[in-house]
Amino acid sequence: MSDRYAAMFGRTRDERRGAFVPFVTLGDPDLATSRLIVESVIRGGADALELGIPFSDPVADGPTVQAGNVRALEAGVTPPDCWRLLGEVRAAHPDMPVGLLVYANLVEVHGCEAFYQQAADSGVDSVLIADMPSAEARPYVECAREHGVHAVLVVPPAVTDERLALIAELTGGYTYVLARSGVTGVDQEVAFDRTLLARLREIEAPPSLLGFGISKPEHVREAIQAGAAGAISGSAIVNRIATRRPNELFAELEAFVRSMASATSWVE
Prior knowledge:
By secondary structure, the chain is α/β, with parallel strands linked by helices. The protein has twelve helices and nine strands.
């Protein structure tokens, strides 16, 4: 099993800060630009990457990330293109934790074994299946583990103790904690549940990353202060991909990620 997440969280703890993890959809707006986008967020200070494979019905995502999926699909981007791109990223950044956020159809289309074998061959550290309920996740978790890939499960708000214990048992690499209910986006309030984060630490779940609605440095700062090990931001990045001119995009993404990463330091 990959230990890149453990090494990353160890490093951030030593540096007395949290982790910042940007999300982008591979192939948005096209493969060549997407590759440069990944390099831009890494230069900005990303501690890990969360990447999506374009899908026609990303039900956990709001309109911003959905539009990124549409752009990639309209550009003709396919899963094999994404596996090749992931292999290039892994070759260029051997120590960077790389996670996938996908939907169950992408796993099932060629079968669980084939999917996780391809993920492992491409250097992927973790896979989060966004539309997979935790109660149905065990076969996928076992398949992932057989191929040396962490399975990441999502902790929703108002989770029961029973479900939380199941998630802590099954998830690996990190724990994805929702900062709010609903879908991804930047236009709603976020919340940072200190009690929930403390419960996760008590039951020794993998380190928590807060996501959904994280769009400003102050959100990152508040997440860390609440006890999260880091934060994930997607829609704010995808929105910049959609709205910035090509000659401005890469510098803008690098600057945005740098501003978010700079907010991860612990406050004494």
